[in-house]
């Protein structure tokens, strides 16, 4: 199973993708999306 988590915001949005394999939870990717304040 894969899960996408999103933490919404106006100027910054965080995200993470995690994956469960048997009894293990693994971080696939995470990051931050920044927008230009002028947009």
From TrEMBL:
<comment type="similarity">
    <text>Belongs to the RuvC family.</text>
</comment>
<keyword id="KW-0460">Magnesium</keyword>
<protein>
    <submittedName>
        <fullName>Crossover junction endodeoxyribonuclease RuvC</fullName>
    </submittedName>
</protein>
<keyword id="KW-0227">DNA damage</keyword>
<dbReference type="GO" id="GO:0006281">
    <property type="term" value="P:DNA repair"/>
</dbReference>
<dbReference type="Pfam" id="PF02075">
    <property type="entry name" value="RuvC"/>
</dbReference>
<keyword id="KW-0238">DNA-binding</keyword>
<dbReference type="InterPro" id="IPR012337">
    <property type="entry name" value="RNaseH-like_sf"/>
</dbReference>
<keyword id="KW-0234">DNA repair</keyword>
<dbReference type="InterPro" id="IPR036397">
    <property type="entry name" value="RNaseH_sf"/>
</dbReference>
<dbReference type="GO" id="GO:0004520">
    <property type="term" value="F:DNA endonuclease activity"/>
</dbReference>
<dbReference type="GO" id="GO:0003677">
    <property type="term" value="F:DNA binding"/>
</dbReference>
<dbReference type="GO" id="GO:0006310">
    <property type="term" value="P:DNA recombination"/>
</dbReference>
<keyword id="KW-0233">DNA recombination</keyword>
<dbReference type="InterPro" id="IPR002176">
    <property type="entry name" value="X-over_junc_endoDNase_RuvC"/>
</dbReference>
